[in-house]
Write the C-alpha cells for this entry.
Amino acid sequence: MADPSFDIVSKVDHQEIDNAVNQAGKEVSTRYDFRDVGASVAWSGEDVLLKANSEERVKAILDVFQEKCIKRGISLKALDHEEPVPSGKEFRLTVKVQQGIADDKAKAIAKKIRTEGPKGVQAQIQGDQLRVSGKKRDDLQRVIALLKDDDLGVPLQFVNYR
C-alpha cells in the first residue's frame, strides 16, 4: 500500500467570483453615492475591472467587491490589485484573481514543511500544486495544522487526503 498523502492547492471557484462581481455590480448601480460617477464592476478577460470618475469612488467600489467576495467565501488573498490608474476622465482598477501556487511560494511551502514539519514527510512540487506524503497520517495532519497557522500570502486548500 502507498504512503498516505494529500495535495495542497490554491483554487478559487470561478462561479463564486462571478456571483460576487454580479452582486457588487448590482449594489453599485443602485446605491445613491455611486450615481452619476460612471461606477461599474465587470469582467475584463480573466480579471475584474472597476471604473469610476474619481480615485476615492474606485476604492469604495473595491470595498463593495471585497465585501461580496467575503460573503461568498472567497479569501481576499486570492485577489491581487494595484492602485487605481487614471484613464482619460475615469479611474480604473484591475483586480487579478490568482489561481494556483506560484513557484516561489511553492518552494517556500516545501522548505517550511522540510524544516518545521515532522520527520519523514516529503513535499513535491507538481505544477501549480504540492503533493505531501509521509509514513503516518498523524504527521500529515500536523503539516496541515502547521500550514493553517502560518500566513503564506495565498489561500490554501488541502485535497485528495488518502
Q: What stands out?
A: The helical segments are 14-30, 55-71, 103-116, 137-149. The first strand starts at residue 5 and ends at 9. The domain at 14-97 is CATH 3.30.70.990 (Alpha-Beta Plaits). The chain has a mean pLDDT of 90.
